[in-house]
Amino acid sequence: MSVESVFPALEPLLPKVSKPVQYVGGELNATLKDWDAAAVRWALMYPDAYEVGLPNQGVMILYEVLNEQPDVLAERTYAVWPDLEKLMREHGVPQFTVDGHRPVGAFDLFGVSFATELGYTNLLNALDLAGIPIHAAERTDEHPIVVAGGHAAFNPEPISPFIDAAVLGDGEEAVLEITDIVRAWKAEGRPGGRDEILTRLAETGGVYVPRFYDVEYLPDGRIQRVVPNRERVPYRVFKRTTMDLDAWPYPKQPLVPLAESVHERMSVEIFRGCTRGCRFCQAGMITRPVRERSIEGIGAMVQRGLEATGFEEVGLLSLSSADHSEIAEVTKGLADRYEGTNTSLSLPSTRVDAFNIDLANELSRNGRRSGLTFAPEGGSERLRRVINKMVSEEDLIRTVSAAFGAGWRQVKLYFMCGLPTETDDDVVQIAEMAKNVIRAGREASGRKDVRCTISIGGFVPKPHTPFQWAAQCDPETVDNRLRLLREAVNSDRSLGRNIGMRYHDGKPSLIEGLLSRGDRRIGLVIERVWREGGRFDGWSEHFSYDRWVRAAEAELPPLGVDLAWFTTREREELEVLPWDHLDSGLDKEWLWADWQDALDEREQDDCRWTPCFDCGVCPAMGTDIEVGPTGRTLLPISPVGKGSPVRNPALSPAVQG
């Protein structure tokens, strides 16, 4: 395939589409390397629109890690909107990268990072636009190796017909090892062709190649076993874990989008992993153990990132950022460093029991006071015991009262609907909690204009969690409970007018559940949905529940299963699950025991601060969990050069420029 830029053919099409700037590339800190000087070439994709994909930390990190290698080239591609897709098909323009506008089909490897299963149809569309056969079995030595990664790749079975390989877990070291293997194979003259390079990847134990595993089924539709079909391939594939985050301070040069994106900020990941043990949370389970970035490492990344981008907001990211053992020192040190500048700090959703006003004041010292966000997840205390989210309503009221009294005016609360053992009353209690927040806010602030927004998402059981055996709630029940909740909120207009309610109906969640816990048979459904026009299923305006249901009804019954079999059916303890041969580090027996504790409404403590619960991760990783704190401080940066975002009180304004 030609490696020439397709931009001459693409450019005349851009005035005819929405947001053409998202396709032109040339962002600040983007990298464009000489094609002929590279031994290995990657095309990296986040399978969603540019505005969602560009800020994605995972792709940004891999892009930089790979391009730092002298003989490696990495470029980015994103899903194209239907308006451009139509024109590309009419004019023969293939899927292209935004960096060099090179055809994706010309690269050695095509890496796709999935944060959600609803991006699967976009993968098929990108493959087809690139001229790459959508079925892995039909690809030749001339086609890129298609590698899936990201959280949704921890069960890649539904897309196994379409990918060549999948990597579980952290990608920094994994992509370099894959690159080394491909480089050596190419240098040897590509011996054994596509089959041999995939075998070399699979035999590392850290790359899953679906074609090398056979799935056998029982008469009732359940899986009997999954076994390798050749030598040199392991029975289980392990996840990759980057243990020393300070050794991987990426991204060093964050990309600055040309078009408006979902996150207009520079982000630093302050730690990875979470041991809070929320039973619904796949991210918390699959990213164990906790690994903290040091306070000096955080400070250096913030400084370097601000100077490289010009952003005025820094997001301190993790699954539960306020749980960093030195978060107070981090936030105070950064607030001191950037005081008097336009640089503000932000945390994502914060646990009520990890929040305090001092922390909030440091975050807002240099910026405006936006609303505070908390995630109780369950409406009743009983349900919060089931999901192991032990936040009492008293804790919440005490926290929001302090916040409203200190000048905040808005609070957002996240919940889920459709959780295991949930009743109508558990959901309706969300309304009373929100009303109590308004009452407490009015009393603490002496004002009537305080607001509380409740945001509710549908619960989806995920692989590698204690809820992987749970029956998913049907959309009709979810929608009925949301209707009851809305009525309860509006029953008292004096309070209800200060409560906003945002929610998604239960239908997209059911389809996400089908894709999340599906096996290889679901590939037929995904392909049919795509062929019938399915694109951007994570966007409500493009998602079609009826299209997915029709596809499932057409493809699954001949195989002895149906949509309900994969979603609303509860699994038994000894059932072989589609992802059992993919090792996240968690013992299946421990997950089952935690599922039984959930049904008995027994909570479990955070193992960071209590004795080990034997989940299996630390022995598998050969590590002990990081508990901190280090006692170190955020070092001041000196001297401050002209144009630096750092303010040094010791220097006069004239010296600082």
**Backbone shape:** globular
How many beta-strand elements?
Answer: 18
Helical content (DSSP H or I, runs of 4+): 25-40%
Low-confidence stretches: 638-643, 647-657
Number of helices: 23
Alpha-carbon distance between the termini?
52 Å
Structural class: alpha/beta
Mean pLDDT across the residues is 92
% residues in beta strands: 5-15%
Sketch the major β-sheet: 5 strands, parallel
Biggest sheet: strands side by side, in what order? 2-1-3-4-5
Query: How much is the radius of gyration in Å?
Result: 25 Å
Task: Explain the overall architecture.
The protein is of the alpha/beta class and about 650 residues long. It contains 23 helices and 18 strands. It has a 5-stranded parallel β-sheet. The protein has a 4-stranded parallel β-sheet with strand order 14-15-16-17. Strands 9-12-13 form a 3-stranded parallel β-sheet. Helix 10 links the parallel strand 12 and strand 13. Helix 5 packs across helix 18 (about 520-530). The longest helix is centred in the middle third of the chain and has 22 residues, at about 425-445. The chain is globular, with a radius of gyration of 25 Å. It starts with 6 loop residues before the first helix and ends with a helix. The model is unreliable at about 640-645 and about 645-655 (pLDDT under 50).
